[in-house]
Amino acid sequence: MRLFWVLDGNPQAVRAYAIQTAAGMDESDLIRAAQKGDRDAFERLIRGYDQSVLRLAYNLLRNEEDAADIYQEAFLRVHKNLNSFRFDCSFHTWLYRIVTNLCLDQLRKKKVRREEPSVVETSDGTRDRLDMVHEERAASDPQRNVLSGQLRDRIQNVLGSLTVRERMVFEMRHYHGMRLRAIGEMLGTTEEAAKNCLFRATQKMRVALGDFV
Amino acid sequence: MSLREGSNMNCEEARTQLSLYLLSELDFSREELLEQHLDGCPACREELAREKALNALLQTEDARLEVPAGLLSRCRADFAAQLAPGAPEAGNAFVRWWNRLGDIVIPPAALFKAAGVAALVAAGFFAGRSQQRFSEPPGWTAARVKSVEAAGDGQIRVVLDETRQREVSGAPEEEQIQRLLLAAVKDPTDPGLRVESVQMLRGRSESSEVRQALIHALENDENDGVRLKAIEGLNRFARELDTRRALTRVLLRDANPGIRTQAVDLLMQNMAPAGLEQETVGAMQEVLLREENGYIRLRCQKALAEMKASPGTF
Ligand SMILES: [Zn+2]
C-alpha cells in the first residue's frame, strides 16, 4: 500500500489518493511477507509500533541516547528473529517482550550505577535535562503554568522512586493500555504479581499527588 | 463460600480495590461486591472520585515525557542505515535486484506522462535524513514488473510499473500538506501511518474537513490507537452537534472500554441543557442496560441524575 499523488493533468489541482497495491494486507500477511524478505512489508510492520516503542523506552529510561539504543536493539532483534516468530502469540506481545526485557536490563544497569543524574552540558553550564524539557515547553506555550511543571516533576520523582518492575507495570497499564494479564505474561510472571506491582506504584503516586486531587 | 465471608466488603478492603476498579481490572465477583459497597458508602464514593481525579491527572500531557522532536526520525534513519545494503546482514536477493533497478532512472517528466501516476509520497517511514542514507539516489524510481512477453526477435519485453518516491514538506496549516494527511488517514492497510497522520491533524480540528476526517476515523477505524488519537483531536469540539453525535455512537458501540470512557467523560464535561440532549440521554440510558464497565455505568448514572435534578443549569 502506498500513498500516491495524482496530478489530473493540472499540477495545481493536486489530489491525493490512497491506492492499494496489494489486496488489503493485514498484520499477519505483513509478517509472512517480511519473513520472506519483503523489506517494504517489514518497514510497514514495524512502523505500526515504533513510535510507541520509542515513547515507552524514553519514558522508562528518561534519556534520549538510551531510548535510541533500545529502539535500534529491539528492532534489530525483531529483524533477526522474525523467521522464528510462529504466531503462537500476537506480534504485539512478542515485540513488547523484547522491548521490555531490553528496558529492564537497561534500568537494572542504571540502578547499579546509582541512577546517574540526568544532566547535560550546555553553554550555561550543567543543566538538568528535565528542567530543560520543561522550559522548552513553557516557552512554546506561555500559558502553561507553574502548577503543571510541579505536577510533572512530582510524577517524575515518584516514577524514579519505583522499583524497575513497578515502573514497568505502571507504564504499560496506564500508558500503553495493556491488561494486567498480558503484562504478567510479557514479564514472565502472574497477573497477581503484576497487580501487586501496580497497586504499590499507585499507592506511592497517590501519596505524592495527594494535594493535586 | 458462605454468605458471611463473601458477601460484604468493608471500607478498608474497598479502598484497596478502587484503582483496579477504575481500570476494569477486577474480576466479576469483586467488582460486584465493590459496587454493592459503594452504593451504601458515601465516604468510599468520595474516595472513588479522588481516585478518578488522580487517574485523570496521570493522563494529562504533563504526566508524560514527550519524545524529543526529531528523535523518532533519527532512530528510523539509523535503523534503516543498519539494514541498508552494505551493512552486515542486509542484502538479500530482493534488495540486490531492487538496487540494480535503481540504475534505470526515468526522468520525472516522462513518468508523469507515461504512468499518470506521478509521485510516490514518502509518507513518513524513512523521512528526513534517511532519504540520503537509505541507499537510493535522489530521483530514485521504484518499479514492479507488470508483464513480460517475447518481442519476436529473440528479445524479451518487460513492462515495468514505475513510481518515483518524492518528499513533500510544509507547514501543518498548508492546504497541500493537509490534503496528503487527510488521504493518509484513510490508508486502509497501514495503521502506523494512520496513527501518525491523525496525530498531526488533531491540532487542526478547527477546519471542518479535518474534523469530519477525525470523526470518521473515530467511528470507523479498526485500530485502537487511531481512534484514541482521533478522540483527543475532537475534545475541543465536544459541544458541537456532529462531534456529540459521534461520541454518543462511540459510547454505545466502541469495543475498547478506554475509548468508551473517554467518550462518556467528554460528553459529560460538555453537557447542554437537558432539552437539547435527548440523543445523549437515550444513549446513556441504553448504556446502563448493557455496559459491563463499572466506571462508564457510574458516569452515565451520574449524568442522568444531574440532568433530572437541574435540567436547565448546564
Ligand atoms: Zn466504605
Task: Describe this protein's structure.
The complex is a heterodimer of chains A (213) and B (314). Chain A has 10 helices and 4 strands. With 213 residues, chain A is mainly alpha-helical. Chain A folds into 2 domains: 8-110, Orthogonal Bundle (Rna Polymerase Sigma Factor, Chain: A); 119-208, Winged helix-like DNA-binding domain superfamily/Winged helix DNA-binding domain (Arc Repressor Mutant, subunit A), CATH 1.10.10. In chain A, the strands form 2 sheets. Chain A has a two-stranded antiparallel sheet with strand order 1-2. A two-stranded antiparallel sheet of chain A has the order 3-4. In chain A, a hairpin with a 2-residue loop joins β3 (119-122) and β4. Chain A is elongated. Chain B is mainly α. Chain B has 4 domains: 11-52, no CATH class; 70-103, no CATH class; 104-169, no CATH class; 175-306, Alpha Horseshoe (Leucine-rich Repeat Variant). Helix content of chain B is 58%, strand content 8%. Chain B contains 16 helices and 3 strands. Chain B has helices spanning 3-6, 11-22, 28-40, 42-59, 71-83, 93-101, 108-115, 130-133, 175-185, 191-201, 208-220, 224-234, 241-253, 257-269, 278-290, 294-309, and strands at residues 117-121, 141-150, 156-166. Chain B has a 3-stranded mixed sheet. In chain B, α2 runs parallel beside α4, α13 runs antiparallel to α14 and α13 runs parallel beside α15. Chain B starts with a helix and ends in a 5-residue tail after the last helix. Mean pLDDT of chain B is 74; it is low at 1-5, 88-140 and 309-314. The chains are: A mainly alpha (213), B mainly alpha (314). β1 (2-7) of chain A pairs antiparallel with β1 (117-121) of chain B. Bound molecules: zinc ion. Zinc ion (ZN) binds next to α2 and α4 of chain B.
